Task: structure prediction
Amino acid sequence: MIAYPVTKAQLEALIEAEVPGWLQKAATRTSGFRQKGYYEESSSIWSEVKVIYMRLQGDCKCAYCERKLEAIDFGKIEQDVEHFRPKGGVRAWKLPKALKDQGIMATAVPDEDRGYFLLPYHPFNYSAACKPCNSALKKDCFPIAGQYDLTGDDPAKLTKEKPFLICPVGDFDDAPEDLIRFHGVSPQPVAASGHNRERALVTIDFFKLDDEAKRKNLLRERVFVIIGLHPQLEKAADGATAKAKAEAQAVVDGFTSSNSPHTNCARSFRELFQSDRAEAKAVFDGACRLITSIS
Ligand SMILES: [Zn+2]
Result:
């Protein structure tokens, strides 16, 4: 995961330009939910703004797993509009024993027949996510360490809930790459302790970002990144001519661009190369061995 920074005003301007009048319709619907005290409607309009998030997120990447999905026209079908805070009800997420053993405790979900009913149409409550991340894994779960506030109407003011998951779109949450970095193909928490470490561990487990069996494609694609990147990093550092170095650097810049798949993995590997070339070579060799064993 990486951050896709955008202010609320910028997001609203993008929405108004894409679908004039959408924000007003969204406000009308939200005031209806406010009057009812829960979310209910016969049809929704958030799919109309999906393309904005697809563009924002590195030109059609999943917000959570950083897989690159197809471009807008055909990619819309394989991306969901993901509600960060669930709109209709909060489903309990079973904290794995391995995380419990590390002292992580999640707050019990509210015993209420409603979700974050004022946020179904908040621009900061959306991202575009692939179906494995959204439909299979996230569903209506939203594990937190603080107290649930289902009446909140502004995600930027709900940080006291202490969510475990990291919101990649916006300017109000920590940048995912400040909490999660990669060693080779494997995501790791940055912080040695505290809530930031717990957020990283839960997010990695929640989206199965390090599950070599269930998310084999993630592992395979990160292996490709490392195998492709390492020779270019070497050339950019040691190339025979300035031209050769510049050409290699352009490729490195491409691999580490926010528009490329698995940017966090690529940037983490670039940092490793810069700080410990022997370890980077060992990771590269390991990736080369993996490519022959991944089915
Ligand atoms: Zn995904």
In short: Residues 216-293 form one domain. The longest strand covers residues 79-83.
